[in-house]
Design a protein that fits this description.
alpha+beta, Chorismate lyase
Length: 177
């Protein structure tokens, strides 16, 4: 399992100590479906690889973003979004167990289906303000070439007023396509 440790999540108006390249900003602040954009970018050669999925405790910042109770369990799903089998995005989704009831119980059984397709097709979906973070390569356990920062974003989505948190980290190979 790939682990990403964050410095600090910030909203768009807050400043960063790192300069953000324009191509990165274009992906980070795109409010549309990342899945749909990747499918277009990959000319149909898009796939999802599930790295892990199971019940556990969310990280403190995730619990706070979701307004979860202390030690409330959540389904945690980690995936790579691939183009031609090359990971372009690492995504981590935290779904409180309380969200996985009623019409949303299918979220626990996505397998290799992209979550974005489910979220953006749900008429009840609402997305809260996006937050962004910048990681340096030493904080990321992956074979990163050179000294390239890894940018990420996260949003709380609500389906029928039930929350889930989606964090997406844009890997360096994305910007070479």
């Amino acid at each position: 399992m790939t682990r990403y440790r964050l410095q600090r999540w910030r909203n768009r108006a807050q400043s960063f100590s790192h300069a953000m390249p324009a191509d990165v900003a274009d992906w980070l602040f795109d409010p549309a479906s990342l899945t749909a954009r990747l499918i277009r970018t990959c000319a149909g050669r898009f796939s999802v690889k599930v790295l892990s999925q199971g019940y556990g405790n969310a990280r403190l910042s995730e619990s706070r973003a979701l307004q979860m109770q202390h030690r409330e369990k959540a389904l945690i799903r980690e995936v790579h979004l691939l183009c031609d089998q090359q990971p372009l995005v690492y995504a981590r989704t935290v779904i409180p167990v309380s969200t996985l009831s009623g019409a949303q119980k299918h979220l626990a059984h996505l397998g290799d289906k992209p979550l974005g397709a489910v979220l953006f097709s749900d008429k009840t979906m609402q997305r809260e303000e996006m937050q962004i973070a910048c990681l340096n390569p030493s904080q990321v356990k992956l074979a990163s070439r050179g000294n390239v920062d890894i940018w990420g974003r996260r949003s709380v989505f609500k389906l029928s007023a039930k929350p889930l948190l989606v964090s997406e980290y844009f890997l360096p190979d994305l910007f070479e396509n």
